[in-house]
Write a structure and sequence with these properties.
The chain is α/β, with parallel strands linked by helices and 377 residues long. It folds into two domains: 166 residues, D-Maltodextrin-Binding Protein, domain 2 (3-Layer(aba) Sandwich); 137 residues, D-Maltodextrin-Binding Protein, domain 2 (3-Layer(aba) Sandwich). The chain has 14 helices and eleven strands. A five-stranded mixed beta sheet has the order 2-1-3-10-4, sandwiched between helices. α2 runs antiparallel to α11 and α12 runs antiparallel to α13.
Length: 377
Amino acid sequence: MTTKPPSAMNRRKFLNAAAVATTAGVAAPAVVKAQGVTSMRWQSTWPAKDIFHEYAVDFAKKVNDMTGGELKIEVLPAGAVVPAFQLLDAVTKGTLDGGHGVLVYHYGKQNALALWGSGPGYAMDANMLLAWHKYGGGKELLAKLYASIGANVVSYAYGPMPSQPLGWFKNPVANLEALKGLKYRTVGISIDVFTAMGMAVNPLPGGEIVSAMDRGLLDAAEFNNASSDRVLGFPDVSKVCMLQSYHQNAEQFEIMFNKDKYNALPEKMRAIIDNAVEAASSDMSWKAVHRYSQDYIEMQQKDKVRFFKTPDPILKRQLEAYDEVVAKKSAENPLFKEIVDSQIAFARRVTQWEQDTTTNRKMAYDHYFGPQGKLKG
């Protein structure tokens, strides 16, 4: 039996069909790779209306956008799944895939965690403390610290905060004596510092502070910044805010993942997260400058809040009390001492560099905007 050679038309049909089959064969693996979306449920430690929760959502959006939607992080506000101070436990257990908060909120688990935010930072600001964290050994010490308490998390310190106010009071604070016996809210090592200064301290989460002041359970309180304080309602319960303090002079935020769920992500996705953290850190600090300064002015003009500088004797006593607390905790906790020693070594070098090289902007401010400033008013 003989077979006729295919016609030119049939040959063209055959070649076209083969080309389609070849193309489909190449495209098939790409379809296999797109295995849907990885979703994560997070919680912040902040009320939904607080700018801090907004920072958490900003970070999630950066990751969601940079992964092209392959990873989708949903961020719930404080209390949606667990209370704010229980975030670490929830992420460790996998009840939540991750969260946004501050390291000092885990103070009850291991007091050395407060060294990422409570206190004067040995004259470093928050950005310099972040430099220590990334390049001076802090990241490795934090991993060691978390391992010591069985925390199954991957933690990123990010988002440098400006120096925080001493807080909200019924009357301007003129001296150390005025602090004695006041029922006051703060967190972390600051609990020990203000207790040493004669105050009765109650460490409440952010969303509970104003109602406690309104009910008389607190005489005074600090939280963080003009925008957060305003939206949380501090001007409704107090018209006096004391600016400047060493109790939280160098704090940052924390982004936290459940370690098992983080490690299960593709390497490329983990790299995106690394870079999204740094992008969010910069964006947060810029947004803070913009929004905090607006709310600072509006609280004076619209809310009739009066702001006062904390007297120097109080600031000096804070430093002394902090040193006393650190000496005690270093003697009790070897990891605490190891972290303190590392911070001091880094701070000694970088703060000298900063003091020697950075121009004091007060002269420029006075020149332009001071009482006799060229651009006053």
